[in-house]
Amino acid sequence: MTAEPDGPEDRLRRFATIWSRAVFPVTSTSLTRPEFEEQLMPLARRLSDALLARTFEAAEGQAVGAALIDAHCTDPEALSRTLDCVDAYLVLYCGEDGPQEALRTRSARLQHAMAAGFAQALRERTLAEQEAISRAAMSARSLVAEALHASEARFRAVFEGAAIGIGIADLEGNILQVNGALLRMFGGSEQSMRGRKVTEWTHPDDAPQVWPLYEELVRGEREHYHVEKAFYRPDGTALWTNLTVSLLRDADGRPQYQLALMEDTTERRLLNLRLRYEATHDALTGLPNRTLFFERLEKALSAGEGQRFGLCYLDLDGFKTINDSLGHAAGDRLLVEVADRLQSCATAPGEMVARLGGDEFVALTTGTDTEREVDELAGRIMNALVTPISIDGRDLTVRGSIGVVEGPAGERGPAEVLRSADITMYRAKSAGGNRFELADPEADARAITRHGLTTALPAALDRGEFFIEYQPLVHLGDGSVRGAEALVRWLHPQHGVLGPDRFIPLAEHTGLIVPLGRWVLEQSVRQARLWQERHADAGPLRINVNLSPCQLTHPGLVQDTVDILERSGLDPDVLCLEVTESALIGADDDLLKPLRRLAEMGVDIALDDFGTGYSNLANLRRLPVSILKLDRSFTQSMQQFPADPVDLKIVEGIVTLAHSLNLAVTVEGVETGAQAEQLRILGCDTAQGWYYARPGPPERLHDLALVDAVG
Fold this sequence. Notes:
The protein is of the alpha/beta class. It has an 8-stranded mixed beta barrel, surrounded by 4 helices. It has a 5-stranded antiparallel beta sheet with strand order 2-1-5-4-3, with helices on both faces. It starts with 7 loop residues before the first helix and ends with a helix.
């Protein structure tokens, strides 16, 4: 028969058994080992519950650590064995079927919390013991002044039996007596200790207030003081203590002796330092992490007058490709090598390198001449990345983009500085990467505005903040209004009316261009239908609507257009969709297929900004276009008389070519009458520009068309 699998309670009991066997030999208790196991059972259950809890509670781990002190597990070895047991068995017996990596991370955090709770409880217990000893010592002091007969025995018992170090010195600092605990802490003999003076025990890490407090005490101006102080042992190692020094007076109240109580905190300090290091350093590279970097940056930014700072924000170019192609292990080795190289670039005083996360690193320099130093630091970083890095037998070329921010301390906060560096880094990356750029407040402001606009775009469409203006399309032969181009605008609550150049690229980047483009098409077609109903005698006014390259690849383009035309009752030949020339350079049949279907329905396709994309003119025959919109750069010289003959020949050639292919030619940016007349002579069909009318509301176009009809 197969044994029934252990239940959660059985596994919890097994974990408590292992724990009790590990800790019981170093525990001062009158309990038997099974009784001690029962005492640990509730603590094991708290650890199990904390391991599986939905959110991590450090207080649970701290409470378990403190409970060990209550169970008389005060030996540091008891803590060490407990942490080893939790690390090895807690997840194994109490983790159930949860994600192992996450559970091990939770277990490690519980260990840190237990250690902190253990240390705090031990300190409180020791302080209580100190207080008891101090009270006994003070009691003994008064009795010594009277006779020292009965109290000497009690004081000697406390003095010799205490677990903390006790020393007595006169007011000149000569050490008179020390107990065994103090001798063990220092590792010296009583003769060597009694031959020293208190004032000899200085240490470089002494706090500024330590010796002024001592002087006040021996002068009788202070009864006691408590400080954290380091001492040198005879072997040169450091002894860290919680030191309490009290003034002993004689029966007449005159200062006579000083009494020192010392608690050895060296191990606890080392543990705290280790926990602090782990909390402030990157586990992969060993560099300072985001937490420590922000502490240093905040300190640098709050420095005194005349101090400056320089910051280099580095992001590796193409790091995702390395992770995807070689795996994350190779990517990690690459990051370690990059970290080592960066560390070698920032060795001067006031310089540091940190890893913020992923492939993002920062280098900080401080001082009075950081304008020069930060440029040199950025140059060293770029040079350090030049040499390829060998990973798994492959030499990988590492490129990086750096944003550099420099300035005086006291003007900006850490978040603002890092945001500027991040913006500048992306500006360097968008310029091709493998370079560094200096921060520019105006560029930062534009980037912040772009981010704000990007964030506000989705809600703006829902709130109806977009509207459309219409610019007339005029026939150059008779000057009549033949239609209009729909130009979308954004009435932003803070920035006012924004043109499409401010938000269309953002909409394309976020994908909002598809619903926005559909809305523009629907509104424009509906408006064309209204014009048709109000101005039936003059014939339909055509409507031109711009298509983004992102819309060309959207599978619903053709069906959306058909549905909108059918709902409005507008004939397809009244609609013209404008596509930029650059969007169709090298376009394959899949991209052209929706345009061909629309053209077959009767929708005109215009090739916008023609002449700026350097496309092969022979490709015009394969594109489903019926109109060329000539870019305004070709006709700017025609605003003056006489026009540049070279420009005239170019435009004449394009018009001739277009007409030979049965394509109509529309010209943008017509601003003067001379320009309009010259374009008419060259054979252009229609034009638009401020010479005729600026973009405006739909009613104005209707009025212009009505005037033409009446004329």
